[in-house]
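[stage:ingest] chain + small molecule (zinc ion)
[stage:ingest] validated
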Amino acid sequence: MKKSIKYFAIVLIAGLLQQCSYSQNKSDKMDIKKDNPVYSTSDTSKVELSNEEWRKILPSDIYQIARQKGTERPFTSKYDKFNELGTFYCAACGNPLFKSDAKFESGCGWPSFYEPISKESIIYTPDNTHGMSRIETQCGRCKAHLGHVFEDGPPPTGLRYCINGIVLDFAKAKEAENNYNKKKDPE
Ligand SMILES: [Zn+2]
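[stage:predict] done
[stage:export] tokens:
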């Protein structure tokens, strides 16, 4: 008798937990890789979609910055004070943009880099909005708005790529990842 009550309770709790995780999933953000058919870290072909199409495959915060040229509030990005080793990709299309070696503490409130991975990573466009004369940086593959580049960065380039963390997707360097997994799961 007691056993069946215990069993019942377990089934009940399991059911509740499942429901809980279902409702959490619904309100969770979209998965920027699984829900985005153009996301690829290796495909270099250009991506040209209408904003209507982007809206369907990007979470709203990424859409707001990447396609509407929004700006995240300073000092809010998880990548602002962040010094793990790895690669930063465009969160809209997966294009490799920056290596962690080129990241530096600029104190400006946004993730900052002194150079992109390659010349093709970034498109540069004059931006004269908001009464300023700036150079806008866009993703070289999908033209997502990333941020701006300024000429007050550190050597060797003297440039400061000031990038919205929301449009960055980070992957740890393979080596670091492997070491971490070894420690976590010793064989
Ligand atoms: Zn992109």
